[in-house]
Design brief:
The complex is a heterodimer of chains A (150) and B (510). By secondary structure, chain A is an all-alpha fold. Chain A has one domain. Chain A has 5 helices and no strands. The relative contact order of chain A is 0.15. With 510 residues, chain B is mainly alpha-helical. Chain B has a domain of 221 residues. Helices cover 77% and strands 2% of the residues of chain B. Chain B contains 21 helices and 2 strands. Chain B has a two-stranded antiparallel sheet with strand order 1-2. Chain B is globular. The chains are: A mainly alpha (150), B mainly alpha (510). The interface between A and B is medium-sized, with 21 and 18 residues.
């Protein structure tokens, strides 16, 4: 016994985490054609990060992705979502009216494609950021009552 | 004044007012969260709420430009109703929106000194962001014409409210259980509501409220619709703190940061009550088979129970914040009593009292925030002699207090007279007696506070800073003077309430 019980876990996790991340993006960009989308993709991406911190410890994870960064990503997601709404407004359409984004002639679908992908990117960022931030809030909590005080 | 503000807004912006009302706080909330310090986030919040206020005024002018009240319909994302989400503004919505945005704007201005004292620096930017999200959620509930979208906005506002309440833990650790309790009750309420909406959707195949109202005409005795009705009534009743479902409220109000208490007391339950009125009178309508008996056998007894029981509870509290919280539940009882009459006059009286109570409680809790800021405590003892050491704060407090009791020349008097008249016209003379009795209890519980404030010796007369800062005093006095203004010249607000009730009864929203 050389003290490391988790060598299998580490090796498997190291192999899995990149695959999970790529799968997250697949779910996002394929969400137009198959079940999936920003929410699910955000959860999957967050899972990759949470799995890393479970296996390799929360401190290195927090160094790589700081809690402040996770919160900023979450806020940025909401900002992106609202920004598409205002983009449509600025182009003369209703709030979030994708067809107005590029002022296309009827029959054009570029606005619909770009609009939904950007909106879902916002959802992805918001969900992934919030999931990681919530996880940090629980996992990084310092006990307020010391063990001796019980 | 309304004409002047409306004339300043370009036509392009006015045409998109329903979207901008929600959209501007929506895009500024994440920006506020990313700000390096709380002061910048606060300035952003002032801009966002102020902009929403202007949009609410513009919509009010648009609605009132037509005799009998126009209906503004805004198709979100260009999807036409009833497939898409519709924002539908009529006389009722525009009144509630004006109330929420006005209170929100004044609350934001007043909030800074109180936030600085009660929230840690690292959390202030996030705090303001959560507040903006709560604000836009409440506006969204009031603006939307889609039943499921209403649930979404209700949850947006509620979830941010739980966060805001829990942040009171810096001052008082009991904020944490209060927030957890509120979270559970609020989630149950929201789940009940969404289950009810699900039943309605199953029975009618639409979520648009105006469309629901039409299709429900043919589904009067459908069991799913009846079940949905019950679920929605209980769900929204929980959110609005209807009498036996109000247990979350006193603690949530007593332990959250002063700023949050003030904002919630004046808006959150009001918006939930609006949603209840919307469902009772627009979506289901008086012809609905359950409705008459619901009004008489559920809303009316619960309203009266709240007026009496919670006023009694308010009398026996030693913490001023809890006194006011219980009084809030009692005042919800007045509104429910007015709504339960089921006539245009009754609903109008209920809505009139809703606005007045928001103005009254807003002022009371603002003054309270000033006291917390300078004197730290909120028990009755801490209030002794404040009339001498902080005359400006306490005079405004007293004005709002007599308005709560219902003394002539104040807002509370006007709406109680309207309520009494509506009760008499319907032959419920005993209801007037209950209103009088409950007002008498209000004299006792507010009297205890006023007695301590004005007729006891100050406990710490040598304190240097006694008054609340100017940033608190100005919004406080605006609200206090609004009480007197409504009391002397109630025409404007009473007119809004009358229009709102009329739009419900002649089917203006259909």
């Amino acid at each position: 016994m050389n003290g490391d019980h988790h060598v299998i876990l580490r090796v498997v996790a190291k192999a899995l985490i990149p695959i999970i991340s790529v799968f997250g993006f697949f779910v996002h960009f394929h969400g137009e054609y198959s079940p999936g989308g920003g929410f699910q993709a955000g959860v999957i991406l967050a899972v990759a990060i949470i799995l890393y911190s479970l296996i390799f410890g929360i401190a290195p994870c927090m160094r790589a992705i700081t809690p402040g960064f996770a919160r900023t990503v979450a806020a940025f997601g909401l900002f992106l979502y609202a920004a598409v709404g205002f983009w449509a407004l600025a182009m003369g359409g209703n709030f979030l009216y994708y067809d107005a984004l590029f002022r296309e002639a009827p029959g054009g679908h570029l606005g619909q494609h770009v609009g939904i992908i950007v909106i879902e990117l916002g959802v992805l960022a918001a969900v992934a950021g919030s999931m990681v931030a919530i996880y940090y809030a629980f996992a990084g909590r310092v006990s307020e009552i010391r063990d001796e005080d019980w | 004044m309304i004409e002047f503000i409306t004339s300043l807004v370009p036509a392009d912006i006015a045409a998109h007012a329903p979207a901008l009302l929600i959209g501007v706080p929506l895009i500024l909330a994440p920006l506020a969260a990313m700000m390096p310090n709380g002061r910048l986030a606060w300035l952003i919040s002032i801009f966002a709420t102020g902009f929403s206020l202007v949009m609410a005024i513009v919509m009010l002018a648009q609605v009132r430009s037509v005799e009998g009240g126009a209906v503004i319909s805004y198709a979100m994302g260009g999807w036409l109703p009833d497939a898409g989400i519709e924002f539908r503004i009529d006389a009722l919505n525009s009144m509630i929106l004006l109330l929420v945005t006005t209170i929100g704007f004044l609350a934001t201005i007043f909030g800074w000194p109180s936030i600085k004292a009660e929230i840690r620096e690292a959390k202030r930017a996030m705090f303001m962001s959560a507040y903006l999200v709560c604000f836009l959620g409440l506006c969204g509930v009031a603006a939307t014409g889609d039943a499921f979208n209403l649930f979404v906005f209700l949850e947006i506002s509620s979830i941010s409210t739980y966060v805001l309440v829990a942040l009171g833990a810096t001052r008082d650790r009991r904020a944490l259980p209060a927030s957890a309790n509120y979270l559970m009750m609020g989630t149950i309420g929201a789940s009940f509501f969404v289950v009810g909406v699900g039943f309605l959707y199953a029975a009618t195949g639409t979520l648009n409220m105006a469309e629901l109202a039409e299709r429900l005409q043919d589904a009067q005795n459908n069991k799913a619709v009846l079940a949905g009705y019950a679920f929605i009534l209980v769900g929204l009743g929980l959110k609005a703190a209807m009498f036996p479902l109000h247990q979350w409220l006193p603690n949530a109000y007593a332990y959250s940061p002063s700023f949050v208490t003030m904002f919630l007391a004046a808006t959150a339950t009001k918006v939930a009550l609006y949603a209840l009125v919307r469902f009772l009178f627009t979506v289901f309508g008086l012809e609905f088979s359950f409705e008459g008996s619901t009004l008489v056998w559920i809303l009316m007894p619960m309203g009266i129970a709240a007026m009496v029981a919670c006023s009694f509870q308010a009398v026996f509290q030693t913490d001023v914040r809890r006194t006011l919280a219980y009084s809030s539940v009692a005042q919800v009882g007045y509104m429910l009593l007015g709504i339960s009459i089921g006539t245009a006059a009754g609903v109008s009286a209920g809505l009139f009292h809703l606005v007045n109570h928001a103005v009254i409680k807003g002022a009371l809790f603002m003054a309270l925030a000033g006291v917390v800021l300078t004197y730290k405590g909120t028990t009755l003892n801490d209030f002794r002699g404040l009339g001498r050491s902080a005359p400006w704060t306490m005079t405004a407090f007293a004005i709002a207090a007599v308005s709560l009791i219902g003394v002539p020349l104040t807002a509370g008097f006007q709406s109680k007279v309207a309520l009494g008249t509506a009760l008499f016209e319907n032959g419920w003379w005993w209801g007037v007696a209950v209103v009088m009795f409950s007002s008498l209890l209000a004299v006792i519980y507010m009297g205890r506070i006023l007695e301590a404030v004005f007729f006891r010796a100050p406990i710490n007369p040598n304190k240097k800073r006694k008054e609340a800062p100017l940033l608190i005093l100005i919004p406080l006095w605006i609200l206090a003077l609004a009480n007197i203004w409504i009391g002397v010249q109630g025409g404007f607000v009473a007119g809004l309430a009358d229009d709102a009730a009329a739009s419900l009864f002649i089917g203006g929203a259909r």
